Structure formats: C-alpha cells, structure tokens
C-alpha cells in the first residue's frame, strides 16, 4: 500500500483507495502507474462526477404547497358564489 498522486487532482491517496478523499473520483490510482504517470494526462470517466439524485427535496414541497393554495383559492371562489346567491 503506497501513497500515489490522484490521477484527477494530484492529491496524495493510497494505491488501494476506491475513492479520492480530495476530489471524489473513483479509482484515483487508476491504470496510471510507474514511469508513464508523468506523461499521462487526467483520465476522465463520465461516471466519476455523475450528479447524485435525491428523492424529494424543496421542489416537491413547493409544488405541493402551490397546489394547495390553488385549491384553497378555488374553494374560496366557489364558497363565495354559494353565499352570495342564497
């Protein structure tokens, strides 16, 4: 277990590390080893920095709240029509 530079950010990571603690890239030691490390550029994998999807969040609550306001407004309009005509 040797300390090697990360293939993405250059931070010091273990050669057995699954994820770089500095930049979060998977397999930071990668296939870049030995003498070709100085000549190899960063290896980019589109899965390395894929966005993490969260369930729920603020958007869902805001949509639910706006829907509730619309329903309350419709009920208020309906109720005032009934009260005015009776």
What does it look like?
With 86 residues, the chain is mainly alpha-helical. 33% of the residues lie in helices and 7% in strands. The protein has a two-stranded antiparallel ribbon.
Kindly list the characteristics that best describe this protein.
86 residues, 2 strands, two-stranded antiparallel sheet, mainly alpha, rod-shaped, 33% helix, 1 helix
Percent range for helical residues? 25-40%
Oligomer: single chain
Largest sheet: 2 strands, antiparallel
Over the alpha carbons, how many angstroms does the gyration radius reach?
28 Å
Order of helices and strands: EEH
The proportion of residues in beta strands is 5-15%
How many DSSP E strands?
2
Helix segment count?
Answer: 1
The secondary-structure class comes to mainly alpha
The 3D shape can be described as rod-shaped
Cα distance spanning the termini: 85 Å
Q: What average pLDDT do the residues reach?
A: 76
Within the largest sheet, what's the order of strands?
1-2
Low-pLDDT segments, ≥5 res? 32-39
Quick take:
33% of the residues lie in helices and 7% in strands. The protein contains 1 helix and 2 strands, in the order ββα. The protein is rod-shaped, with a radius of gyration of 28 Å.
Helices and strands in order, then pairings?
Blueprint: E1 3-5, E2 12-14, H1 58-85
